[in-house]
Structure formats: C-alpha cells, structure tokens
Amino acid sequence: MEDYQLGVVESRFADLVWEREPLTTRELAQLCGERLHWKRTTTYSVLKKLCEKGLFKMENRMVTALVSRAEYQAYRSERFVAEAFQGSLPAFVLAFGSRRKLSQEEVAELQKIIDSFQE
After folding, report:
1. What would the DSSP string read from start to end of 8-20?
2. What's the predicted TM-score (pTM) here?
3. Most buried by CB count within 10 Å: which residue of 13, 83, 106, 109?
4. E strands of 1-119, at which residues?
5. What's the pLDDT tens digit per position in 98-117?
6. Which domains does the chain have, with CATH numbers?
C-alpha cells in the first residue's frame, strides 16, 4: 500500500468525498466551494493529486473512493505505532494512558476489543 499521508486540507477534502460518495465532479466542486471556499480549479487539482495517490477514482465525472475512511485510518494508525513505538501497541496504550485517565466505559470498551482478538 502506498504511503497515504494527507495534510489538513487534503484530509478535509477526503472527508467530504467519504461522506458523500459517489458524487459527480460538479457536485464535489460545488461542495468544496461551499465548505472549503475553493474555486473549481482547486478542487480538481486536489482531486487529481489524491487520485494519483490511489485514494480516489474519477471515472465518467464520478468520484468514488478506492480506500475507505476506515482503511485509511487503520493504515495511518499502524504507521504511527510502527514509527513512534517500534510497532508496540502496548507501548502506545501506556504512553496514551499516562497523560490521561481512561473512563470506566473506555476501559470496558478496550477490554471488549482485546477479548474479541483472543481465540
């Protein structure tokens, strides 16, 4: 998988596509004009860039995602843990939890997730 790293502006754009796909390029340009205050040319430039990265596809003036938001978030999370914590998820959780107390609900939810991974 290609390194899908999006900047803040690209992330906002990607969120618009993920929320409404499939959509026409015209609908996307209008939406970006309303939400991001972009000109049509800016929308098409960013779309082209993200299509080249393999995140989206534009075919017959229709824009669709090749990578879902969930897939993108999972990939970026894996990369972060690999780079910042040498791939250790427990080290990440320990670092996260050392600065912020987890609520009982969060602990219970995490426990359910851990239990679902066990055989």
Report:
1. HHHHHHHHHHHHH
2. 0.77
3. 13
4. 23-24, 56-59, 62-65
5. 888 888 999 899 899 889 98
6. 8-69 (1.10.10.10), 88-119 (no CATH)
